[in-house]
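User: Good morning. I'm curious how magnesium ion would be positioned relative to this chain. Could you predict the structure with it bound?
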Amino acid sequence: MNLEQLLDRLKMEHLQVSLDTLCEHASKADLNYREFLEQALSQEWGGRHQRGFESRLKQARLPWVKTLEQFDFSFQPSIDKKTVRELSGLGFVERSENVVLLGPPGVGKTHLAVALAVKAAEACHRVLFMSLDRLVSTLIKARQENRLDRQLQQLTYPRVLVLDEIGYLPMTREEASLFFRLVNRRYERASIILTSNKSFTDWGEVFGDQVIATAILDRLLHHSTTLNIKGESYRLKDKRKAGLIAVNTAKVDTDNPNPEEETAAIN
Ligand code: ADP
Ligand code: MG
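Assistant: Good morning! Here's the predicted structure, ligand included:
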């Protein structure tokens, strides 16, 4: 077999496409055999890792991809950078701990949750993003079709499950008890990153039942990091700058908690 055939059989397609360039570079840089082999295999490994990452990102169903590097911490001084840096090391994923991001609309909860999910996908962890809305309809449908247990099991496979927008819509007791079953399944097995516009004291109202809310919080917070973001909406900052909205008037309206959402959907 010649080199091309060997690379083909070994499925080293990334090395195959860049082999000529690598050889040229090796001779110019006067690399020894060991250095050349290392570069060649790194090329193949890099290509495979990138492809794996892209496929994990696709499976994660993120609403958009944003990174921690794109997050302007100076705009949100209530966020402890050190805590975020620690979280980005992904020890919480290894330890199956949870992250809870609380705060009013537009302060970057989803951005940070997505950025941590991207980090996890980069580090070869399986990730899944779900808005609470979609989670609830998925679980209700599974129950109706008599496959709730299998569905809950499937939702334990991702190492990181992002549950976005808890608290925007109140839940019925049935929905809350399904949510509890999910949290219970993942408890101490795999991480949840959760975002909510409601503080923990309001969770009884969100879940329509104080007992269920307490049981959910008990499991969720046992091993967890909470970031309580107190600040202004990033979505509105340009409008504020332009003097269209008065400063410090961003308040959560419980009937319509996220009025700027429609325009911000372009983000
Ligand atoms: P929330 O989930 O808290 O309502 P988002 O995370 O969706 O807010 O943020 C709204 C938009 O503003 C997104 O496009 C996000 O990337 C951006 N954003 C929010 N905070 C920041 C920040 N501190 N630096 C950079 N972009 C931000
Ligand atoms: Mg959000």
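Residues 109-110, 164-165, 195 surround magnesium ion (ligand 2) (CB under 6 Å). The longest helix spans residues 33-60.
Let me know if you'd like a different ligand tried.
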